[in-house]
Design brief:
With about 140 residues, the chain is of the alpha+beta class. Helices cover about 25% and strands about 40% of the residues. It has a six-stranded antiparallel β-barrel. It is globular, with a radius of gyration of 15 Å.
Length: about 140
């Protein structure tokens, strides 16, 4: 699906998630996220069109997890940048509270502001460095 067809903005975000499927639980991480879905990498492939239950665990600036029901739209896509979790899947959120959808939307929007600072000086190089440092620290600390 091209970015022009997406309903919600999508940002690169590496958040840890657990996935519960009929075949069992998997640890995974997101590659990108929007308020409507995500692309995830995990140890095993997840069946296309499967209904799954996801829990977002390690979201920056958040002190709680976010539970979501989702449908696997695309599956078994290779995650080239992740040797520990080589199987990829695109998921669409089918059940998420309005509060959590808005929260994810706000986090994605904030993330996009950091990724693409405007020329007004509101987002500085120091903010970007702080964000990247936090992201790398979380990835290292929470390696699966």
């Amino acid at each position: 699906m091209s970015r022009e067809q997406r309903r919600y903005p999508r940002a690169d975000a590496y958040w840890l998630v657990t996935i519960d499927t009929p075949q069992g639980s998997l640890n995974a991480r997101t590659i990108d996220v929007s308020a409507g879905g995500a692309f995830i990498c995990c140890q095993k492939s997840v069946r296309q069109f499967a209904e799954i239950y996801m829990t977002f665990l390690d979201i920056p600036q958040l002190d709680r997890s976010i539970p979501v029901r989702a449908e696997v739209i695309r599956s078994n896509i290779h995650c080239a940048d992740d040797d520990l979790r080589p199987h990829g899947a695109g998921v669409r959120f089918t059940q998420i509270s309005a509060e959590d959808r808005k929260l994810i939307s706000t986090l994605v929007t904030d993330h996009l502001k950091i990724e693409q600072p405007d020329s007004g000086g509101e987002n500085t190089d120091d903010q970007l460095a702080d964000f990247q440092s936090h992201q790398i620290s979380n990835d290292t600390k929470n390696s699966i």
